[in-house]
Give the backbone structure.
Amino acid sequence: MIAPKTERAFRRAAEVQSFNGILFDMDGTIVDSTDAITKHWHKIGKELGVDPSAILLTSHGRRSIETLALYDQNKANWDYVSYIEGLIPIEYGADAVEVPGARSLLASLDRVNAPWAIVTSGTRALATGWLDVMDLSYPKTLVAEDVSAGKPAPECYRLGIDRLGLIAGQVRTQVLVVEDSPAGVLAGKAAGCQVLGLATTHSTEQLKDSGADWIVEDLRSVLVVGLSADGEIQIEIRNALQGF
């Protein structure tokens, strides 16, 4: 799904930033599975007897277990959620596409052996399913079952920092979070990270108001320059949004 555009131009001068690690959201950031997720919730809504459009209003960026709890507490358990989410790439894989620039960016990070991970509102079954279907690189994946509270709570990104092996005393603004949703941006900022917002599913105003440090159209604006001698990832951010 393409987010609404604003009058602001994506013309900010290129800049190089250094980070100790990068944490990516999954849906809307690496994979655009909007059509697949829409079909999924239509199916689940029919089973629950709930209008799917009502579910879709609040489901993006929220864990399925939390969404289901609004309608049927008996289905709000990880066994059921993992089962239904594991079916999404199998049943609707043809409806998903990679976010422009995602494949080349992840491959570039792997080439320089940079520390990166995925922090997602989806289950492990969903995350690995999309990586398999899209034939994308596997990171140290962090998924929803690993934390007690979903985004915008910062726990997921704090755990992501720990999973990357960054020492507790390290300055957390040296970790970059890449997100497409306001809840994800809020979570990244609350975890002490800098956040790059992608205008793929939400408006630039929503990302700005959530506290994103940069906003770009997609991952084609993010390039890996290299890995420094002390292990910092050097990232070039091109054509970011002007005006804030």
Summary: Residues 34-48 form the longest helix (15 residues).
